[in-house]
Design a protein that fits this description.
four-stranded mixed beta sheet, 35% strand, 2,3-Dihydroxybiphenyl 1,2-Dioxygenase, domain 1, single chain, alpha/beta, 2 helices, globular
């Protein structure tokens, strides 16, 4: 089986990297690592050997509520959504249980105006 179409990296456009780092670190309870690449800056999410991604700030990055919608993993959707709202996010889709054993999702606007999804796997039985 080929991994040719598997997502392995994402970049979320931001205009104010400091503000966005504060938002994402608070919502996800993690630390982001600042890096500079050419003419732009990144704040990289911890990713180990899994899918990686970063906040990306530079002239070629424009935040938008109408672009790609990434879903980031969380342990509990309600907790992460509450943290996002406490940091000024607008809930675009409330906590929603998915059918079967898919889990729970929600969507909110981040500090830069992007639409961001969160997903929690179902609790182990």
């Amino acid at each position: 089986m080929s991994d040719d179409n598997v997502i392995h990296w994402f970049e979320i456009p931001v205009t104010d990297l400091d503000r966005a780092i504060g938002f994402y670190e608070a919502v996800f309870g993690t630390r982001l690592q600042r890096e500079r690449m050419g003419g732009f800056e990144l704040a990289v999410f911890p990713h180990g050997s899994g899918v990686g991604g970063a906040l990306a700030c530079g002239p070629q990055f424009t935040p938008s509520a109408h672009g790609v919608l990434p879903y980031l993993a969380v342990t509990e959707v309600g907790v992460a959504l509450d943290r996002a709202v406490s940091r000024g996010a607008t809930v675009l889709m409330p906590r929603t249980e998915l059918p079967g054993s898919i889990g729970t999702i929600a969507v909110f606007s981040d500090s830069e105006g992007n639409s961001i999804g969160i997903h929690a796997a179902p609790a182990a039985a």
